[in-house]
Amino acid sequence: MRTLPDNDPWSTRHPLVTPPLSSQARNSSTPRFGSWRDVVDITPPMREDIEVDMDLAFFSDALSDDSAKVLVAGPRGWKTTASVLAECSAPDGEYLYSVGDGALRWAIGRRRQYSGHGDTFPVTAIIQSAANATSIIKGSHEPSEALDNLVHREKFSNMAYVPLDDEF
């Protein structure tokens, strides 16, 4: 999420307020953030059924409220995102996985809208994030700067955000 242009509406949600983040998950075109309508600002639908639309299939399942909260926290960094994810935790890991999975799927899909189909950044970022998690578990208070450097290198310029004029 931190690689999106600063002027992308997904990067500029209202200031984070916890709990709850319900005000974070809103925009003008849908009752709450997390509908496929939130992605057609830069990618028009090519098929009537977005589940078979190669560019929009990432977004065919609406985000849960908790996944939307995690996604909205993403541009604010790993500590904020981890805190919001922890607030969404349940006694079993299955729910936590589904919350994270939804947010990650949408984050990768949004980045793909800018980068196209051959983007390797998500895999690299996941590997670096795993290394950072390991260092935090071992007692480091801050993860290595490698991920921050990678994000800085892979960040899209504000000129990349070109919203469509059409309403879908």
Q: What do these coordinates show?
A:
This protein has 168 residues and is mainly alpha-helical. The chain is built from five helices and no strands. Helix 1 runs antiparallel to helix 2. It is globular. Residues 14-30 have low confidence and may be disordered.
- Through-space gap between termini: 24 Å
Structural class: mainly alpha
Q: What is the residue-mean pLDDT, rounded to a whole number?
A: 80
Residue runs with pLDDT of under 50 for 5 or more positions: 14-30
**Helix-strand string:** HHHHH
Largest beta sheet, briefly?
Answer: none
Please give the radius of gyration in angstroms.
16 Å
Please give the number of β-strands.
0
Helix content: 40-55%
Instruction: Specify the number of helices.
Output: 5
Basic shape: globular
Fraction in beta strands = under 5%
Can you give me a brief rundown of this structure?
With 168 residues, the protein is mainly alpha-helical. It is built from five helices and no strands.
Brief descriptors of the model:
168 residues, 0% strand, globular, single chain, mainly alpha
Give a topology summary:
Layout (H helix, E strand, L loop, with lengths): L64 H9 L4 H10 L5 H23 L5 H17 L8 H9 L14
